[in-house]
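Hey, quick one: can you model this chain's 3D structure?
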Amino acid sequence: MKTPHSLIPEQKENIKHGEVYFPIQKYITKLTKEAPVITMHWHEEAELTLITKGSCVYQIDLVEYEASTGDILFIPPLLLHSIILKSSQDFCSETYVFHMNLLGGNTADICSTRYLTPMVNHELSLPCLITADHPAYDSLCKSFAQLASLYDTRMFGYELAIKSYLLQTLFLLLQYSSTRFSTESDSSDKLKIVLDHIDLHYAEALSVSELAKLCYFSEYHFMRFFKKHMNMTCIQYINNIRLEKAVELFEHGNTSILEVSLSVGFHNLSYFYRAFKAKYHMTPLAFIKRLELDSV
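Sure thing. Here's the predicted structure for all 296 residues.
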């Protein structure tokens, strides 16, 4: 049985989910008051999720969905998405991340050309949130349960059955599909460009003016656009990325706080200390010491 991973991705994932010839991976996502957010990100794979505990707000392709225990979510490939804890109660979900090629998305048969390719290209919009009152809910729950059981037990031939249940899931969702509007895609694409740029250049001096030009927005319009879709200001987001990168460096053995601060884009050490403590509720030095204790 393969141990489920923790789903804490970066904005543009380069992670390969599963194996080359069987690209599907199970993840367990947990949110708490101390770690209440999975930041906005996207990847080439689709996601199928069952919320097993608590409630949250999913933002998928810039649209918010309130979800709670028992709800099912489907996220097509390449769509921006994030998760925010909704209440003080801890949140947990079980997610299967899979590439459409697993289902034949890279072939030239009618299933690929008529259904899978339009899904990947976002020409078809499938329902993202399935709640208990949705007509397809019971059938989707049964498919999800079978998928989960097969993934864990891995009996001989389980790969065939997993493909069949994923295809059945898409078939059920397709009955409630619609055509996607280009305006939704335009806004999402602009935000992806900005997030990509920040992820590549977070260690450099970044200005609102520079990022606004990427979208052909005025600074005022850009700041409103970013805050609306990311639930934080652009500066807050950049600082958050820099702090996450700093944690990665500490976890990889770099113990020079000044060196880490400079390498992720903080050129004021006291500001780095304040921002780090505000996010992680401890100083960088305390974080390093905790890592050292954990490694003993």
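One thing worth noting: The first strand starts at residue 5 and ends at 6.
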